[in-house]
Amino acid sequence: MAHNLEYIVVGHVIKAWGIRGEVKVEVLTDFPGRFDPGNVLYIDGHPLTVERTRPHKEHLMVKLRSIDDLTTASKLQGRNLEIPIRQVPDLPDGQYYRFQVVGLEVCGTNGEPVGKIEDILPTGSNDVYVVRGPRGEVLIPATDDVVKSIDLENGRMIIEIIDGLW
């Protein structure tokens, strides 16, 4: 795997909330059950057990065991909540997680280097890969007629360079 990460980010602590140690979390996972009470999340490799959660607008208020006051909770501001990568469920063939795709080197079927995937933009019909390279920023549709292969082992994606791509 190109990224060789031990952990992946599932949430980001926006700020401490209230005097009892809750933190306001931006959820960055498609599996919000990761924040269910009893589950373990990690900050810098240190395990923290979820005591309780509650929705608050588009965020979650999360109370972590042993974080019991505003001062301690404030130290978590700006930090990422992570899980070990081995806990990530496998996806069906041909589907990839964001963390697997961002950072891949992109080349044309002719071997021409296109750049590195920096971001993924969801659109109505298909995702679009934002690639930065020798020709600047290039937007590549994540469709079967453009993306010919993804090789996570070697960290590369091969694309068909279609008319209008540049």
Overall, the morphology is elongated
Major sheet: size, sense and barrel closure? 6 strands, antiparallel
Query: Quick one: CATH class of the largest domain?
Result: Mainly Beta
- Portion of residues in beta strands equals over 45%
SSE-based structural type: mainly beta
As a percent range, the share of helical residues equals under 10%
CATH architecture of the largest domain: Beta Barrel
Question: How many domains?
Answer: 2
Mean pLDDT, to the nearest integer, reads 90
Number of helices: 2
Give unreliable regions as ranges: none
User: What are the secondary-structure elements, in order, as H or E?
Assistant: EEEEEHEHEEEEEE
Please, could you describe this protein's structure?
This protein has 166 residues and is mostly beta strands. The protein folds into two domains: 7-87, RimM (Elongation Factor Tu (Ef-tu), domain 3, Beta Barrel); 98-159, PRC-barrel domain (SH3 type barrels, Roll). The protein contains two helices and twelve strands. Strand 11 and strand 12 (156-159) form a beta hairpin. It is elongated. The two termini are 29 Å apart.
Structural features:
single chain, 166 residues, mainly beta, Elongation Factor Tu (Ef-tu), domain 3, SH3 type barrels, 6-stranded antiparallel beta sheet, 2 helices, 12 strands
List the helices and strands and how they pair.
Blueprint: E1 7-17, E2 22-27, E3 40-43, E4 46-56, E5 59-64, H1 70-74, E6 80-84, H2 98-101, E7 105-108, E8 113-121, E9 128-133, E10 136-141, E11 147-151, E12 156-159
Parallel strand pairs: 7-12
Antiparallel strand pairs: 1-2, 1-6, 2-5, 3-4, 4-5, 7-8, 8-9, 9-10, 11-12
